[in-house]
UniProtKB/TrEMBL annotation:
PANTHER family attached to this UniProt entry: MACROLIDE-EFFLUX PROTEIN, MAJOR FACILITATOR SUPERFAMILY (MFS) PROFILE DOMAIN-CONTAINING PROTEIN
CDD domains: MFS_MefA_like
GO molecular function, one term: transmembrane transporter activity
PROSITE patterns: MFS (PS50850)
Organism: uncultured Rubrobacteraceae bacterium
Keywords carried by this UniProt record: Cell membrane, Membrane, Transmembrane, Transmembrane helix, Transport
Domain of life: Bacteria
Protein name: Transporter, putative
Pfam families: MFS_1 (PF07690)
Gene Ontology CC entries for this record: plasma membrane
Topology of this chain in the membrane: Multi-pass membrane protein
Amino acid sequence: MTSRSTETRPGGSGAGTIRLLRGNRPFRSLWCARSISFLGDSLGLVTLLLYTANTTGQALAVALLLLVGDFAPSLLGPFTGVVSDRFNLKRVMVLCELVQGVLVAIIALTLPSLPLLLALVALRAITGQIFQPASRTAVPALVRDRDLERANSSLGFGMNLSEALGPLAAAVLLPIVGVRGVLLVDAATFVVSAALLASLPALPPFTANEGRRASFLSDARAGLGYIWSVPVVRTIGLGFFTVVAFNGIDDVALVFLARDSLQGGDSAASVLYAAVGTGLLLGYALLARYSGRVSMVLLLLLGFGVSSAGNLLTGLAWAVAAAFAMQAVRGVGISAMDVATNTLIQRLVPPVMLGRVFGNLYGAVGVAAGLSYALGGLLLDLTAPRLTFFIAGTGGLLATLAIALALSRTMKSRPSQASPVERAEHD
């Protein structure tokens, strides 16, 4: 694989999103594969949640399903990224999609009892956790450096649109084909995604040297060591973790805000949960259209601050409509966080370390979300929904200020040469 800075790739400079997708066949294949796979993920998750709730009648069972599907695999972040750095990215992605398809098909055909279902869901989630850093690492190998912002924005838009459509598709399909049928559709989306990914060019791993390869555990340790030893990467990672740890509580608190504070019902809560998704789609669409006009460091800080302010202002909302608007603002901020983080990491981190950095970063984000759910739930019980949102947003804004100061010190600490961030901004 050639260097990111010298390789000539399709999808010319400054191309619009549609032009990028039309002119860059490999990136278009990745975009379609991710969008289709996310559609299957979304409708499959809704189906499994309903199936588990209906067969067990226990909220704990539903919570366990979410736990093994989201939180548990994130603990393996230091190891999942190693796979991307050691093996051909194309083969890793294709194999991961096929394995996930087989596991979902097994669930569909057997509809197992809860213990076996949790085990199968955990295996599928771990495979997905391996796929994530591989897909993010592949982006700078498929598009020009100047198109990274637009590529990451368009990927985010496609995946979130698919995730929003998934529950609607499940609502239509469940009465027609039942649980087994919907899960088989989910399995088929993985097969389609794998076929699209198989059309990508070869994406062999970067190697630091041609000598004896270190052990898997040593590579995982080196990934953690790299993140901690590079101030700008460490600051971005700690910042993302802290902001999510403060603000992830909204997933738990929105239903209580709608019901208790705003005197709404289940429909009001559903509307509020849709607000973040609406903001995400709007944010990704705007970033895809106007990418490159804002510094990625500034966009990162804006994302942290706007997403946190959205929660703070949600706590002050006087009606469901106002809360919806503030949560939509939060969604716009999250899209900025995502695009800026991915683009900065893709530019700042050497290719040989990219998979491990992404694996650790998004693994840590999963842990932060889990902590936010747990501690935020306790805060809700001790206080009230409005105060919970206010505390979460305030904490996120203070964290944003600390991150801004830390990044400023990092850039000023290299007076004799441009900092990694400055080099990334001028590439």
